[in-house]
Amino acid sequence: MNRSRSPISKSRHRSRSPKSGRTEKRRTNDNRDDNRKRNRRLDKPEFLEKPESHSRLAAPQILDDQDEEPDVSDSSTKEDDSRKQLTSRVDVTSVNFGLSGKLTAETNTFKGVVIKYNEPSDARKPTEYWRLYPFKGKEALPILHIHRQSGFLIGRDRNIADIPMDHPSISKQHAVLQFRHVKGLTRLYLIDLESANGTFLNNNRIESKRYYELKEQDMIKFGFSSRDYVVMIDENAGNTKTGNE
């Protein structure tokens, strides 16, 4: 009896050709290789090298109280233009506020109050008509004439101040406007008398006991007062003198 194979068994038999067997074996080997690689990655993870952080994103250096501040000076560092302009006006000569001896006590007392400041030897009354133009916000206040004497004491003590100011942040003897004859010219200087809340030139607080030369259109502030004082020279005052000149 002849046993004929069914179409299904014949197709199965035909599918098991040598070529298909090699293909299946190759797939098996590929799967084993993939498993080995996968196991290798899990056993030995690879780490990427951490890139260097950007200088702006790097953590800031925190100092303890007793640590010295690092030197950050660099040839490429530039001062702000306004600061350069300000520092260039400083007279390197400091002022001696020390009071000693009978003569000093006599010459440095006015109305029973010891004055913290003595005029320098080069003090000189100006020949030009200097003015202080006060502003409170956008409101212009009465002009102050500062050409009539060589120096003007500014402060809250009305008994001794040439230019009294009542703001509570202003010291009793706060600052001085001083005319000095320097290098053949009479120049206007500003000096802070170690005030508690400072004197500001063009929005920069000046160092106490140092002369700062003033130029036209410079702006001065005293303490925390909202008033600004702009320095100017009245060019027309000499031609049209009034009773106030």
UniProtKB/TrEMBL annotation:
- Bias type Basic and acidic residues, positions: 21-55
Q: Where is the composition biased (Basic residues)?
A: 10-19
- Which residue intervals make up region (Disordered)? 1-87
Show where the FHA domain sits: 152-206
**Listed InterPro entries:** Cell_Proc_Reg/RNA_Proc, FHA_dom, SMAD_FHA_dom_sf
Fetch the SMART domains from UniProt. Answer: FHA (SM00240)
Protein name per UniProt: Smad nuclear-interacting protein 1
Q: Which organism is it from?
A: Cichlidogyrus casuarinus
